[in-house]
Write a sequence for this structure.
Protein backbone atom coordinates (compact mmCIF):
# COMPACT_ATOMS: atom_id res chain seq x y z
CA UNK A 1 0.00 0.00 0.00
CA UNK A 2 0.95 3.66 -0.29
CA UNK A 3 1.06 6.05 2.66
CA UNK A 4 1.77 9.74 3.17
CA UNK A 5 4.65 10.44 5.58
CA UNK A 6 3.30 11.49 8.96
CA UNK A 7 0.08 9.51 8.60
CA UNK A 8 1.42 6.31 10.15
CA UNK A 9 0.94 5.24 13.75
CA UNK A 10 2.23 2.13 15.51
CA UNK A 11 -1.37 0.88 15.76
CA UNK A 12 -1.98 1.37 12.03
CA UNK A 13 1.26 -0.37 11.09
CA UNK A 14 0.40 -3.35 13.29
CA UNK A 15 -3.14 -3.52 11.85
CA UNK A 16 -1.77 -3.41 8.31
CA UNK A 17 0.57 -6.30 9.01
CA UNK A 18 -2.24 -8.35 10.54
CA UNK A 19 -4.38 -7.63 7.46
CA UNK A 20 -1.66 -9.05 5.23
CA UNK A 21 0.03 -5.84 4.05
CA UNK A 22 3.71 -6.69 3.56
CA UNK A 23 4.98 -3.65 1.62
CA UNK A 24 4.49 0.09 2.17
CA UNK A 25 5.53 2.89 -0.20
CA UNK A 26 6.10 6.34 1.30
CA UNK A 27 5.59 9.42 -0.90
CA UNK A 28 8.55 11.32 0.53
CA UNK A 29 9.59 13.26 -2.63
CA UNK A 30 12.38 15.07 -0.72
CA UNK A 31 14.07 15.13 2.67
CA UNK A 32 14.85 18.86 2.45
CA UNK A 33 12.59 21.19 4.45
CA UNK A 34 12.57 24.11 1.99
CA UNK A 35 11.80 21.84 -0.97
CA UNK A 36 8.98 20.14 0.93
CA UNK A 37 7.52 23.50 1.96
CA UNK A 38 7.32 24.66 -1.66
CA UNK A 39 5.41 21.52 -2.64
CA UNK A 40 2.97 21.86 0.26
CA UNK A 41 4.27 18.79 2.07
CA UNK A 42 4.19 18.94 5.85
CA UNK A 43 6.53 16.10 6.81
CA UNK A 44 10.22 16.33 7.70
CA UNK A 45 13.13 13.94 7.32
CA UNK A 46 12.67 12.99 10.96
CA UNK A 47 9.02 12.14 10.25
CA UNK A 48 10.11 9.65 7.60
CA UNK A 49 12.69 8.09 9.93
CA UNK A 50 9.96 7.64 12.57
CA UNK A 51 7.53 6.15 10.04
CA UNK A 52 10.10 3.63 8.82
CA UNK A 53 10.92 2.64 12.40
CA UNK A 54 7.22 2.02 13.16
CA UNK A 55 6.79 -0.09 10.03
CA UNK A 56 9.82 -2.19 10.88
CA UNK A 57 8.71 -2.59 14.49
CA UNK A 58 5.41 -3.96 13.17
CA UNK A 59 7.26 -6.48 11.01
CA UNK A 60 6.98 -4.69 7.66
CA UNK A 61 10.49 -4.67 6.19
CA UNK A 62 9.66 -4.11 2.52
CA UNK A 63 9.60 -0.31 2.37
CA UNK A 64 9.83 2.00 -0.65
CA UNK A 65 10.80 5.67 -0.63
CA UNK A 66 9.66 7.92 -3.51
CA UNK A 67 11.96 10.82 -4.50
CA UNK A 68 11.57 13.46 -7.22
CA UNK A 69 14.56 14.91 -9.05
CA UNK A 70 13.90 18.45 -10.27
CA UNK A 71 11.77 20.04 -7.56
CA UNK A 72 11.78 23.88 -7.47
CA UNK A 73 14.88 25.11 -5.66
CA UNK A 74 16.59 21.72 -5.73
CA UNK A 75 20.37 21.82 -6.07
CA UNK A 76 23.07 19.22 -6.50
CA UNK A 77 23.85 19.65 -2.81
CA UNK A 78 20.27 19.25 -1.59
CA UNK A 79 19.69 16.26 -3.87
CA UNK A 80 22.82 14.60 -2.50
CA UNK A 81 21.51 15.25 1.01
CA UNK A 82 18.23 13.47 0.20
CA UNK A 83 20.24 10.51 -1.08
CA UNK A 84 22.23 10.57 2.17
CA UNK A 85 18.97 10.11 4.08
CA UNK A 86 18.14 7.06 1.99
CA UNK A 87 21.48 5.59 3.01
CA UNK A 88 20.86 6.33 6.71
CA UNK A 89 17.40 4.77 6.60
CA UNK A 90 18.63 1.74 4.69
CA UNK A 91 15.52 1.59 2.52
CA UNK A 92 15.55 -1.63 0.46
CA UNK A 93 13.64 0.01 -2.42
CA UNK A 94 13.54 3.49 -3.90
CA UNK A 95 11.61 5.08 -6.76
CA UNK A 96 13.31 8.08 -8.39
CA UNK A 97 11.22 10.15 -10.76
CA UNK A 98 12.46 13.02 -12.89
CA UNK A 99 10.08 15.98 -12.63
CA UNK A 100 7.58 16.04 -15.47
CA UNK A 101 5.56 19.23 -15.62
CA UNK A 102 1.95 19.02 -16.73
CA UNK A 103 1.07 21.97 -18.96
CA UNK A 104 -2.36 22.08 -17.32
CA UNK A 105 -0.93 22.40 -13.81
CA UNK A 106 -0.31 25.74 -12.11
CA UNK A 107 3.44 25.12 -12.14
CA UNK A 108 3.46 24.01 -15.78
CA UNK A 109 1.40 26.99 -16.90
CA UNK A 110 3.68 29.37 -15.04
CA UNK A 111 6.80 27.83 -16.60
CA UNK A 112 5.31 28.25 -20.08
CA UNK A 113 4.62 31.91 -19.31
CA UNK A 114 8.14 32.43 -18.04
CA UNK A 115 6.78 33.49 -14.64
CA UNK A 116 8.05 33.04 -11.11
CA UNK A 117 5.04 31.85 -9.14
CA UNK A 118 4.92 28.35 -7.64
CA UNK A 119 8.70 28.15 -7.91
CA UNK A 120 8.62 28.11 -11.72
CA UNK A 121 11.79 30.14 -12.05
CA UNK A 122 13.63 27.82 -9.67
CA UNK A 123 12.95 24.52 -11.43
CA UNK A 124 16.34 23.01 -12.35
CA UNK A 125 17.28 22.72 -16.01
CA UNK A 126 16.71 19.48 -17.90
CA UNK A 127 20.46 18.88 -17.87
CA UNK A 128 20.61 19.37 -14.10
CA UNK A 129 17.68 16.99 -13.55
CA UNK A 130 19.43 14.38 -15.71
CA UNK A 131 22.57 14.83 -13.61
CA UNK A 132 20.55 14.36 -10.41
CA UNK A 133 19.11 11.12 -11.78
CA UNK A 134 22.52 9.79 -12.81
CA UNK A 135 23.88 10.62 -9.36
CA UNK A 136 20.99 8.66 -7.81
CA UNK A 137 21.82 5.64 -9.98
CA UNK A 138 25.44 5.78 -8.83
CA UNK A 139 24.75 6.43 -5.15
CA UNK A 140 22.00 3.83 -4.82
CA UNK A 141 24.16 1.21 -6.51
CA UNK A 142 26.86 1.92 -3.90
CA UNK A 143 24.23 1.14 -1.24
CA UNK A 144 23.38 -2.17 -2.90
CA UNK A 145 20.10 -0.74 -4.22
CA UNK A 146 20.38 -1.30 -7.96
CA UNK A 147 18.23 -0.05 -10.80
CA UNK A 148 15.97 -2.77 -12.21
CA UNK A 149 13.52 -0.46 -14.02
CA UNK A 150 13.90 3.08 -15.33
CA UNK A 151 12.61 4.69 -12.11
CA UNK A 152 12.91 1.83 -9.63
CA UNK A 153 15.80 0.55 -7.55
CA UNK A 154 15.95 -2.35 -5.10
CA UNK A 155 18.10 -4.66 -3.08
CA UNK A 156 17.92 -8.24 -4.41
CA UNK A 157 14.57 -9.75 -3.45
CA UNK A 158 12.87 -6.40 -2.74
CA UNK A 159 11.75 -5.60 -6.29
CA UNK A 160 8.09 -4.59 -6.55
CA UNK A 161 6.21 -7.72 -7.62
CA UNK A 162 3.11 -5.56 -8.11
CA UNK A 163 4.73 -3.34 -10.74
CA UNK A 164 6.71 -6.13 -12.37
CA UNK A 165 3.38 -7.65 -13.43
CA UNK A 166 2.67 -4.53 -15.50
CA UNK A 167 6.06 -4.41 -17.20
CA UNK A 168 6.03 -8.15 -17.92
CA UNK A 169 2.43 -8.04 -19.22
CA UNK A 170 1.08 -10.47 -16.65
CA UNK A 171 -2.69 -10.43 -15.91
CA UNK A 172 -4.03 -8.30 -13.05
CA UNK A 173 -7.39 -7.07 -11.76
CA UNK A 174 -8.00 -3.52 -10.55
CA UNK A 175 -10.70 -2.84 -7.96
CA UNK A 176 -12.11 0.58 -7.16
CA UNK A 177 -12.75 3.83 -9.01
CA UNK A 178 -10.55 4.46 -12.06
CA UNK A 179 -8.70 1.15 -11.62
CA UNK A 180 -7.47 -0.69 -14.70
CA UNK A 181 -7.34 -4.41 -15.48
CA UNK A 182 -5.65 -6.75 -17.97
CA UNK A 183 -6.40 -10.43 -18.59
CA UNK A 184 -3.52 -11.09 -20.99
CA UNK A 185 -5.52 -10.15 -24.07
CA UNK A 186 -7.94 -7.34 -23.18
CA UNK A 187 -7.55 -4.12 -21.18
CA UNK A 188 -10.38 -2.23 -19.48
CA UNK A 189 -10.96 0.37 -16.79
CA UNK A 190 -13.50 1.20 -14.09
CA UNK A 191 -15.55 4.38 -13.81
CA UNK A 192 -13.50 7.37 -12.66
CA UNK A 193 -15.76 8.48 -9.78
CA UNK A 194 -16.52 6.39 -6.71
CA UNK A 195 -20.26 6.99 -7.14
CA UNK A 196 -20.25 5.72 -10.73
CA UNK A 197 -18.12 2.73 -9.76
CA UNK A 198 -20.48 1.72 -6.94
CA UNK A 199 -23.37 2.07 -9.38
CA UNK A 200 -21.79 -0.60 -11.55
CA UNK A 201 -19.29 1.37 -13.62
CA UNK A 202 -16.90 -1.41 -14.59
CA UNK A 203 -15.59 -2.73 -17.90
CA UNK A 204 -15.23 0.72 -19.47
CA UNK A 205 -13.13 1.26 -22.59
CA UNK A 206 -12.54 -2.45 -23.15
CA UNK A 207 -9.99 -2.90 -25.92
CA UNK A 208 -7.68 -5.59 -27.19
CA UNK A 209 -4.13 -5.00 -26.01
CA UNK A 210 -1.35 -4.19 -28.48
CA UNK A 211 0.68 -7.26 -27.56
CA UNK A 212 3.53 -6.59 -30.01
CA UNK A 213 4.07 -2.92 -29.17
CA UNK A 214 3.59 -3.45 -25.44
CA UNK A 215 6.24 -6.15 -25.40
CA UNK A 216 8.77 -3.52 -26.41
CA UNK A 217 7.69 -0.32 -24.66
CA UNK A 218 6.87 -2.07 -21.40
CA UNK A 219 9.61 -4.71 -21.45
CA UNK A 220 12.35 -2.24 -22.33
CA UNK A 221 11.59 -0.30 -19.15
CA UNK A 222 13.25 -3.16 -17.30
CA UNK A 223 17.04 -3.26 -17.15
CA UNK A 224 16.83 -6.99 -17.93
CA UNK A 225 15.48 -6.04 -21.36
CA UNK A 226 13.63 -8.40 -23.68
CA UNK A 227 14.54 -11.36 -25.84
CA UNK A 228 13.14 -12.76 -29.06
CA UNK A 229 12.51 -11.40 -32.54
CA UNK A 230 12.44 -7.67 -33.25
CA UNK A 231 9.91 -7.59 -36.08
CA UNK A 232 7.99 -5.54 -37.04
CA UNK A 233 10.23 -2.81 -35.57
CA UNK A 234 13.55 -4.01 -36.98
CA UNK A 235 14.34 -0.80 -38.88
CA UNK A 236 13.77 1.44 -35.85
CA UNK A 237 15.65 -0.88 -33.51
CA UNK A 238 18.63 -1.03 -35.85
CA UNK A 239 18.67 2.78 -35.89
CA UNK A 240 18.62 2.95 -32.09
CA UNK A 241 21.44 0.39 -31.95
CA UNK A 242 23.54 2.59 -34.24
CA UNK A 243 22.70 5.68 -32.19
CA UNK A 244 23.70 3.97 -28.95
CA UNK A 245 20.23 4.05 -27.36
CA UNK A 246 19.81 0.27 -27.44
CA UNK A 247 22.26 -2.58 -27.09
CA UNK A 248 22.20 -6.37 -27.23
CA UNK A 249 23.69 -8.16 -24.23
CA UNK A 250 23.53 -11.93 -23.91
CA UNK A 251 20.88 -12.09 -26.61
CA UNK A 252 18.64 -9.58 -24.83
CA UNK A 253 17.71 -6.15 -26.20
CA UNK A 254 18.20 -3.41 -23.60
CA UNK A 255 18.30 0.33 -23.18
CA UNK A 256 21.81 1.76 -22.79
CA UNK A 257 22.51 4.34 -20.08
CA UNK A 258 21.98 7.03 -22.72
CA UNK A 259 18.87 5.23 -23.91
CA UNK A 260 17.36 5.39 -20.43
CA UNK A 261 17.64 9.18 -20.51
CA UNK A 262 15.99 9.27 -23.96
CA UNK A 263 13.58 6.39 -23.36
CA UNK A 264 10.48 8.29 -24.47
CA UNK A 265 12.10 8.77 -27.87
CA UNK A 266 12.70 5.02 -28.08
CA UNK A 267 9.23 4.03 -26.86
CA UNK A 268 7.56 6.31 -29.40
CA UNK A 269 8.81 3.91 -32.09
CA UNK A 270 6.58 1.19 -30.69
CA UNK A 271 3.40 3.10 -29.81
CA UNK A 272 3.35 5.98 -32.26
CA UNK A 273 3.28 8.58 -29.47
CA UNK A 274 5.55 9.49 -26.60
CA UNK A 275 4.48 7.69 -23.42
Amino acid sequence: MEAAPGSITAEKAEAWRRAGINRVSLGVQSFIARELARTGRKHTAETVVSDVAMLRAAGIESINIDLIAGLPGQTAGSWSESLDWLDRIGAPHASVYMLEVDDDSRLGHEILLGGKRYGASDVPSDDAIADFYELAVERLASMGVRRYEISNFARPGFESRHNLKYWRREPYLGFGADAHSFDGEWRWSNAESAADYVAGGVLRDRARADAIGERFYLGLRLMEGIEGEWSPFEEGIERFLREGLLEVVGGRLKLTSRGVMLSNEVFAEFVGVVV
Remarks:
- The chain has a mean pLDDT of 91.
- The chain has three domains: 2-161, 170-208, 209-275.
- The chain is about 40% helix and 20% strand.
- Residues 209-275 form a domain with the Arc Repressor Mutant, subunit A fold (CATH 1.10.10).
